[in-house]
Amino acid sequence: MKRIHFDEFVKMKKTIFMFFPVFLLFLSSLLLSQENKVKVTAEKANLYANPDINSSVIETIEKGTILTLISTGKIRNIWYYASWYSKKRSATVLGYIQASLVEIVREVPKIKKEEERPKPKIKEKKPTIIPISPPKTRVPKKIKIGPKSGIGFLAGYAMPLEDNYSNGLQYGGNFCLGITKNISVELSGLRFQSDVEGDPEALSKGKLSVIPIQLSIQARFPISSRFVPYLLGGGGYYLNRFNLDKEITDVWDALGFDIEEKVENAIGYHFGAGIDLFFTKNIALNADFRYCIAKIKGTWNLTDQISGTETSGDLEDLNLNTLMFGGGLKFCF
Fold it and tell me: Any idea which fold 6-105 has?
């Protein structure tokens, strides 16, 4: 057997003591890797500065709190030396905690099952959808039913109710001012001409021209935005003119006399009804009926061509009651 000198023994001893701390560090790290955490099981547990319940309390820890062990071995069989991050101090504190108030937390590595592995996602091609817009339906515009003002042009037929007056065409226009939805004011001017057959007690044969200028109040009753019937009533001023037939004037002229018959203007009244049928927002077809009541006065004058002597008289009972039917266009704004 080979002998070991004292110097060599001393060197060997130094080498062993040099590697011993490294070995302890490796062993503690191995143990800490398996048992390095404890969880508080009591409602509250104190972290002491020394392994003694009479020492100062560093922190009181709630149940369920996890602490990291500095050393896995128990001190005096009842204490653990551990660290914990204190939010109150905003720092990591070290201290001793009773082993009976905690339990070792062992972390078991989780092994993923093959069926739990995420499967690669396969992008599915979405079918291309071409939106088909529904056919556009034309919504009719709503037409205002409120007050409407406008002008109109009329043509129609006048029927005097006197037997010796003939019927005739009438024409003219009007202006309508909307006051409310149901009330309007109308100013109209019409003209018609009638052939007079002759009456010994009234006018002789000739032509009578009448221009009634009428002011009416319309009571309108809109049934819809397009269909508006109305009633009307009012008064007017009748501009009248009469021309004797040429045959009569020629006969009196052959006898040496000039003859003339005149009619005066008159005030009359009327009432009636009508309807506006709108086919656009501002244009309407108009139909109108009214009954006019007027009584006019007249005179006749006979002059001798040689002596200049004049003879005259009055014409009475000249009734101008007339039925008037008209239709046309009305332009509103």
Answer: SH3 type barrels. (2.30.30)
